Amino acid sequence: MSKTNAGNFFEDFQIGQVIKHATPRTITSGDQALYTALYGSRFAVQSSDAFARALGYAHAPVDDLLTFHMVFGKTVPDISLNAVANLGYAGGRFLAPVYPGDTLSTVSEVIGKKENSNGKTGVVYVRSTGYSDDGTEVLDYVRWVMVKKRDVTSPPPDAVVPDLPAAIDPQALGNAVPLLDTVHWENDLSGSPFRWADYETGEKIDHVDGMTVEEAEHQMATRLYQNTAKVHFNLHTESESRFGKRLIYGGHVISLARALSFNGLANAFHVAGINGGRHVAPLFAGDTVYAWSEVLEKAEIDGRSDVAALRLRLVATKNRACADFPLKDADGKYEDGVILDFDYWALMPK
Amino acid sequence: MSKTNAGNFFEDFQIGQVIKHATPRTITSGDQALYTALYGSRFAVQSSDAFARALGYAHAPVDDLLTFHMVFGKTVPDISLNAVANLGYAGGRFLAPVYPGDTLSTVSEVIGKKENSNGKTGVVYVRSTGYSDDGTEVLDYVRWVMVKKRDVTSPPPDAVVPDLPAAIDPQALGNAVPLLDTVHWENDLSGSPFRWADYETGEKIDHVDGMTVEEAEHQMATRLYQNTAKVHFNLHTESESRFGKRLIYGGHVISLARALSFNGLANAFHVAGINGGRHVAPLFAGDTVYAWSEVLEKAEIDGRSDVAALRLRLVATKNRACADFPLKDADGKYEDGVILDFDYWALMPK
Amino acid sequence: MSKTNAGNFFEDFQIGQVIKHATPRTITSGDQALYTALYGSRFAVQSSDAFARALGYAHAPVDDLLTFHMVFGKTVPDISLNAVANLGYAGGRFLAPVYPGDTLSTVSEVIGKKENSNGKTGVVYVRSTGYSDDGTEVLDYVRWVMVKKRDVTSPPPDAVVPDLPAAIDPQALGNAVPLLDTVHWENDLSGSPFRWADYETGEKIDHVDGMTVEEAEHQMATRLYQNTAKVHFNLHTESESRFGKRLIYGGHVISLARALSFNGLANAFHVAGINGGRHVAPLFAGDTVYAWSEVLEKAEIDGRSDVAALRLRLVATKNRACADFPLKDADGKYEDGVILDFDYWALMPK
């Protein structure tokens, strides 16, 4: 039996199977500093202990997407080492604040499986849950990936496709945010006078700025998350691939777009739920990422007068400014340059 | 009203106007680790809790220029997003030690304003003050920037040009340094036997070493400081600029030159005052930075027998070694390769 | 007398000479975060406070090679600034766990010296010891370097070549590991079911994955360690060297290979001893590093039923996969692509 991990193939996954992933990871202020250096995130709650404490946090929580990447990274060696594509996300909920010093680990359950008609690959659905060291659930989400079969002659399993929500119910949001004393929310410090009431459904915001990505940056980010997907790191093999170069981790794009969205959504301090997400096209080093957002929906949360929710579509492009809000053409195909179509709930002070 | 920040134009600034900047930022040991990784700074006081504590610090303070960059970075979205050039610094004073865990915020006051004769731009002078979360002033300095007018037809304001000191009075230095028990200052550990008495006015020191800068490095640094100036990050737009590439944040050059100056000034452990500074020419990724220093002045500080001050001119070059101390030619023009002319006070143990 | 450090030449070293190196350095969780971002190390003991505490550590220790690089880096300005080559390592022992917050300093003793027959260079042997701030020895090792003579006419000294062990006695291992309560060692979390008993002498393991190195990465790493060797940082001078480019710090290769070895040796959580090491060929940015290991020897440690030792040969290559375990050709010469031949003791739970 080989001592190295060759990853799992389509046949290896069983409905109901539970996988406890390596490596547990204590998140530190060093990780948060790197996160800031890699994306330039400027949300006040995550940047300042003083700002966070005045509102009612113990101190500044780490960026929500840092938590997401840490929880996600652990699943790669077991779930997606032989993945052809990361197809989508759904049902992501941030369930508790994560602070430096917390140790995160991840457990996944296989909840769906369906062979593709080509007989060579199949789709595997997993629900992954991130836990803090005291057993608190901090995040759960579903993703589905296209995975190679080990043996093209193995018979197809019974198809099981889970019923996934189109969006998280807003009443299920906000568990990662203590009740906030928003009288201490200073707009000058947070970077914007615009609160939840100032946004309207259908409103589109061009986030204006662009950020060029370097190989060293995305490699450092992806290693920080202990994500081992080979395509991000190995020029020697990737130079023979169809792209001829290293592919940037899709989560890196989400974090860049989210950081860019500060300019226009500075008070959208918390990613509370991930409704869905699609990596429309690959990103490579040297490309410049831009982003725009659309307000899809507004929702209040029962029992909370401090914060409310905006459902946002966050679109990222490469080498294309977003003043004209590029998305899909008349045929419903994504326009050239669009790389990410991400649907999430953010919380804002009222 | 747009939700994105388009920055302020010349007409937007009013004498006496006070701007409280976003984003408050807790400095951590993660930021200091990144600072070391980005510049290779080796000053013992900032590197070692044990060394700093033996002298009388609570523990190791962060590098003074890390504090400077953090305080400066916050001002960019409000002061210099539409700046054509960062013209100069004056009157910079480091007022209290900054330790990991301190949260910094910045407030600026507009203290001068003068339209340029071309009618298209003007110079704005601001005094920016960095505060710790308990209200302690940790740094203040003046900078002036050339800013575009929103409307070339708007009438020129009354010119107000502040009276700025050519240099900080040495008696005003040292507030960021507790009284030190310098019997515990070990030259072996600090890296040099040369103390304040060993330097002479007029003495020039070639710092010998050179450091090549990469795009990923200056981008990570500048994002760490949450400095949002567009020219540092966006290859897509900058490839159309007069340089055709991304411009490196001037503060990155100051930090590189300061780190290089360890070789020759290892005991100049503290930047106590910034008298002035000029970015003579731009730096780009791939360039190699060298530096040399001249001792401009020596001064004792009343009531302190532990430390005294050296006024230093720190000159940085690109792609040119500094054995011949390059500065200005016979016509008073900066020589090719000179990129920084920086005038500061450093403290050294006696 | 020059205020800058020109480094020591062969004549400057005396047998028995003791050198206390600058700069003492407090290791923090920021350094560990950068270490993870630079190499992608995934060993559970160093990644998780919770995992480490359950076993009996105070909390997660830093990666052993981070300690090594920090202790080593300090020696460069005094020992190897004028080195032509870093010839070898021997007798390396990790003597105490290092935790974030510990301050490390290094003292070296010159233990050997021998002029080369060309009369231009000589070999200097030093034993370097890393100390924590309470005086605890955390690491010692011997290295020997080829150093230029200051004056080719100076007479050769009496040759003194120290007697160095071919390998550390396994009974001397394990001081940096408290007695572990290995009932809490969860294989799922550590990433492998294979314990010490599952490995056999002579067994070879291809670590499969490859990692491409960027200039920004190795520069940030080497500066983090405050290692000042010029060849790693200065493109302006190195473009005129025989390689025409910057050379990557050899220790960066060791850390990359060690991190890659997780895939196959996930439970080899601790580098306990360095028997020897040779940098066979240089590594440059853009190259992709692969690695394989051979189990050279197995040893139990008296008085310990928790862990035991594997002596491992760790071989790294560039731009060459390791499925065929490349090492030496029929003439005993290293094969093309081999860059590191490293012999160390690792500890594993039984």
TrEMBL record, chains A, B, C:
On the tree of life, the source organism's domain of life is: Bacteria
Query: Which Gene Ontology molecular function entries are recorded, alphabetically?
Result: lyase activity
Its recorded name reads Acyl dehydratase
Biological source species = Roseibium alexandrii (strain DSM 17067 / NCIMB 14079 / DFL-11) (Labrenzia alexandrii)
